[in-house]
Amino acid sequence: MPTTKRAQPDACSLLDTDHKNVKKMFTAYEELMESKAASATDKKRELANQICMELTVHAQIEEEIFYPAVREAIKETDLLDEAEVEHATAKDLIAQIQDATDVDDMFDAKVKVLGEYIDHHVKEERNEMFPKARAAKGLDLVAMREQLAARKEELMGELMGEPA
Description:
The chain is mainly alpha-helical. Helices cover 80% and strands 0% of the residues. The protein has helices at residues 11-34, 39-73, 78-99, 105-135, 141-159. The longest helix has 35 residues, at 39-73. The protein is elongated and about 55 Å long.
């Protein structure tokens, strides 16, 4: 039986790893929603903040690096237009979560809706955009992965208050 050569990690695999990590955080948040423990409120706030930070950085590297390169490389750009609208809506929800003073039922609802929204967005990227990007001529997704990783590290450092 012939062995299939495993594809080199590329920009899409880096972005998809982010998707999987955030999905785990949303799942953990939902588990906290079931908890009656007093400590659950603080844990939910902390986890929601982490989700918001991860999504903010992820959206920024997609918008700065991935989307513009893919937009140039593929003919059908409606997927990219939709993705950018989805990002704008997600950013609005993120702002509402970050600005919330109470971790109450509305807070939980916003985090839950954000999770559902991100699930939809991820499905479109994974099933439609990533295959088109990988099939595009002249798009070096392996090199782009390094660019995305470097920018992500830089942005995370800024958000964590580390000196540049």
